[in-house]
Amino acid sequence: MDLTDSPAEAAFRREVRDWLGDHLTGEFADARGLGGPGSEHEAFEVRLAWDRLLADGGWTCLGWPVEHGGRGASTAQQVIFHEEYARAAAPVRVGHVGEELLGPTLIAFGTEQQRRRFLPEIVAVRELWCQGYSEPSAGSDLANVSTRARRDGPDWVIDGQKTWTSLAHQADWCFLLARTGPPGQRHRGLSCLLLPMDRPGVEVRPIVQLTGTSEFNEVFFDGARTAAEHVVGEVGDGWRVAMGTLGFERGVGTIDQQVVFRRELERITGLARTGGALDDPVLRDKITRAWIGLEVMRFTALRTLTGVAEGTAGPEASIAKLHWATFHRGLGELAVEVAGACGLVAAGAPYELDEEQRLFLFSRADTIYGGSNEIQRTIIAERVLGLPKEARP
Fold it and tell me: Which part of the chain is the Acyl-CoA oxidase/dehydrogenase middle domain (predicted)?
């Protein structure tokens, strides 16, 4: 695995860097760094306008095939874009669920009619999406989904509840997993449906997080209707579609996440240096170990992405999720440890947090969302190491 840029890749990196430098100006100059973990509410309209400017410049959906509105960018080019985007501290994207999750899912499993209808809107950031998978009794155990959908003439009628639904309060559409077959079948009888969020019978209730913000929500469906043709894949084949989506979630977008982690570590190191905490040999050792952890994470991610490009990535992606989630939670703990006693008191009334405090509080969830650490360890044990399967009821 060659980690140096080829001449063509170096030219692409300059193109990305120059475009970002030229456009993160004017109304977007103050948008740098906005929308990060615990601050997803910040400047939504500005960030939406930024996403649409990216679309106008041809910088959305880079890895999608050209025939579907993308640029057909290689894995290396996508990594370069995400690295430079994060280094420029460009604002967190508002259309990433559609671009990184639903779009690739429709390309892989959708009908031609669905691709024509939805993909251009995602590329142009004219429609925003949320993901309706988790439920109160079906989080990491996704096969326990109980939300139901039944056919009624030309429509599917949906009843149930989803939770931890990120950005549901801003989304135009939701792609959700519902049970269309008999209950008790677990993986069988699930279907992936596309539902407009403005339909009668859809209610969104924000969930207040430890950070005081509400990035995710509860969503209730009470007789909500969507058209019969809005099934992705075959009816009853939703588990395969859902696993495909989760595979896309472990894709190239994790690279810019790691660059953000690096910026956070640099900020913590600077705080330790100016505050004197770096003189403590124990804290200095923890900061050094965090730096080493980031380097290992980067190489592991690039090796995993090589497998994605070759079509061979599988449950090994769980290693990356387990690694970065545990690392980032530890980084949040390190942040408040370096901040010392001041890190235990809100920066202002009634609940104004500084960056280190938001990092600590938000990162507590890293080892839960997107598949808990316990689930990732089970996947690694059974599917990677070949150990006996865990006893299940």
Answer: 130-222
DSSP 30-76: GGTTTT-TT-TTTTHHHHHHHHHHHHHTT-SSTTS-GGGTS----HH
pLDDT digits (tens, 9 = 90+) for 294-326: 999 888 877 777 655 444 445 667 888 898 999
The two three-digit tokens of residue 303, written as one number: 């090796």
For tokens 């989760």, the residue is: 246
69 and 175 fall within a common domain: no
Burial label for 60, CB within 10 Å (0-12, 13-18, 19+), is: buried
- In a shared domain, residues 379 and 284: yes
Strand residues in the chain grouped as ranges (E): 129-132, 148-152, 155-166, 173-179, 190-196, 202-206, 216-227, 231-232
Q: Which residues pair with 61 in a beta bridge?
A: none
Cα gap 299→256, rounded to integer Å? 14
Rounded CA-CA distance 30/305 in Å is 33
Total number of domains constituting the chain: 3
33 pLDDT exceeds 80?
yes
Residues 286 and 374 in one domain: yes
* Residues 193 and 257: beta-carbon distance below 8 Å: no
Closest to 259 measured CA to CA, from 313, 324, 339:
324
Environment class of 4 (CB within 10 Å of its CB; exposed 0-12, middle 13-18, buried 19+): exposed
State the pLDDT at residue 297.
Answer: 87
Q: Quote the CA–CA distance of 136 and 58 in Å, as a whole number.
A: 39
Q: Which long-range contacts (CB under 8 A, 24 or more apart) does 281-289 make?
A: 283/334, 283/337, 283/338, 286/334, 286/337, 287/334, 287/338
CATH of the domain at 56: 1.10.540.10
Distances from the Cα of 277 to the Cα of 267, 283, 303, 340, angstroms: 13, 7, 35, 9
Q: Is residue 122 part of a domain?
A: no
pLDDT recorded at residue 6: 93
> Would you state the pLDDT for residue 312?
42
Question: Based on the domain organization, do 179 and 264 belong to the same domain?
Answer: no
In tens, the pLDDT along 102-118 reads 999 999 999 999 999 99
Q: Would you say residue 393 lies in a domain?
A: no
C-alpha span between 317 and 247 (Å, rounded)? 8
Domain extent, residue 227, equals 129-237
pLDDT of 60 reads 97
Residue 181 lies in a domain: yes
Catalytic positions, written as ranges: 249
